[in-house]
Amino acid sequence: MKKLAWAPLGAVALAIAAIAPAQAADQKSVAVTAIVEHPALDAVRDGVKAALKAEGFEEGKNLKWQYQSAQGNPGTAAQIARKFVGDKPDAIVAIATPSAQAVVAATKTVPVVFSAVTDPVAAKLVPSWEPSKNNVTGVSDLLALDKQMELLKKVVPNAKRVGMVYNPGEANSAVVVKELKELLPKMGMTLVEAAAPRSVDVSSAARSLVGKADVIYTNTDNNVVSSYEALVKVGQDSKLPLVASDTDSVARGAVAALGINYRDLGEQTGRMVARILKGEKPGDIKTEVSSKMELHVNPGAAEKQGVKLSDELVKSAAKVIQ
């Protein structure tokens, strides 16, 4: 009788033992890191997670998800990269150029998908815009600068001097500065630079532009975006309008932005990650660029910064911040 009583339990134990490895084999792991937390990069992270769920990879079911921010510190980004590589996930998602550079430097084997990187070739993440044939691919937030400057002229028609606060150590910003130096003279304007190597330098860098610039243009520099309110205060105090390339910055006080929807960028990235989880090799996947551009405007911010947006510009916007 005892043998009969214990037999079903033994069968259950064997069944559980047989199922457990199958579940472990089905589970995928994705490690996500960003250089800093701000609305645009947070939107990328959330978009990646949403796209993975839509593709059948859901945290708590068949996906192990972990996320860490470097809080703006490149040294911390390198530590996170090494930690994630040691965890041997199925893919690492690196959001923004400094984090992507840290992860790519840390592994030649773990699949890496970068996102929100302006120029991955200049940042030495991939050898070209074609499939890398190594362990790296991703999605760029490269913007057409000529269209950005056309918007700037619509906001400040008489602008001659374009101020830009940026971190010289951030590859994506250095690329934009180089390109603006070539582009602006063709449009009858010049670039006035103000370096902000740290987030805490953004306010003083912006103040240094007062009297030297007619308008401030902000790209997706992570120091600047993470401290955007400090820039807005200078803009309001000095009647120096801010034109951004990051649409999330408009709700924070920029006058206007023609940029990428970073939630969409994250979802595009997430779909790429899903392809890798399903068996594709990152080196066979070409680097992508987001093609969706949106105009956001903030008439209230414009008034506080000494300009008035034309009715035509406001009507053409995808989103008007009131």
TrEMBL record:
Residues 1-24 form the signal peptide. It comes from the Bacteria. Keywords: Signal. This is ABC transporter substrate-binding protein. SUPFAM superfamilies: Periplasmic binding protein-like I. The keyword Cell inner membrane does not apply. The keyword tRNA-binding does not apply.
